[in-house]
């Protein structure tokens, strides 16, 4: 909105010409997200406490988690507010990629909200059934895949970070692939959200990494020089990525150990879905496996644990997802969290390094 209101005034007042610069708007989207978090955060936490939207702790989980019972949850409402408001303020709202990504964020947020509300406010332990959640996730992601596939000039090819000439064209099957990426990323972040600050730290780092890739993919000269696919208009998503980074840091202010509030599914599902959507739009889907390696490991640990127990009758880990395995081995929660952040930073640097390895 600010972009549309103030940039047209540049013809009369040169100062407003600064609003045309993507870097300026990205930085201020990030700052705005932080400000929104600090202003709205305490109010949302109080409202969640008034609703008695309190975290339910699994009795079969680590004993150290029992003391977290009663902590407000559904804090993802704060994250969504801190992403959507700055994006609407600073982004060029004529850009279709902005609306596609916001659709995923709001749509997945609604799925998570309904599930959380049923569980923690209405005290329905079942919430939305896994099938219902998966159905609506697939519907939204599928709609995104179809929309992107239908856009003139949007490529259905896959690009691999370390292989310059390897980019197979999936054709119409790209819709299913895009759906898989978005749904998979959403649920991987959801599985990672089990310790104070464990999920939001890597999400902010991932968003920062994709901020760079969005900017490059939307710049015809930079993308040609670095030999990554040029996607006209994708650069505007840097503003949304900046808002995600700011919202992540703002939420971490309240979610860092010991957490004052948990994000719940209303936060984890849309954050993962947004990362998957950014990866699909920028044609960096495979790269998400690297930069989001922590989320991949968490998801795989659950898959392997369930598969092993089902077919062998034995567990691989003491408990899945894998962060609970380390807890049960006696590693302190803050140490697990920070180590996972460090791993994410290393993976983000590896992902960025692929820009010169093509």
What can you see in these coordinates?
- The chain is mostly helical and 358 residues long.
- The protein has one domain (21-289).
- It has 14 helices and no strands.
- Helix 2 (22-50) runs parallel beside helix 9 (237-255).
- The longest helix is centred in the N-terminal third of the chain and has 29 residues, at 22-50.
- The two termini are 38 Å apart.
Name a few traits of the molecule.
14 helices, mainly alpha, 358 residues
Can you describe this structure in just a few lines?
By secondary structure, the protein is mainly α. The protein has helices spanning 2-6, 22-50, 76-90, 96-121, 130-150, 174-192, 200-217, 220-226, 237-255, 265-281, 287-291, 293-312, 322-328, 333-353.
Secondary-structure class: mainly alpha
What integer is the average pLDDT?
A: 92
- H/E element sequence: HHHHHHHHHHHHHH
Span between N and C termini? 38 Å
The largest sheet is: none
Number of helices: 14
Cα-atom radius of gyration = 20 Å
Uncertain runs are none
The percentage helix is: 55-70%
**Hey, roughly how much beta strand do the residues contain?**
under 5%
Principal-axes geometry comes out as: globular
Quaternary organisation: single chain
Number of strands: 0
Number of domains: 1
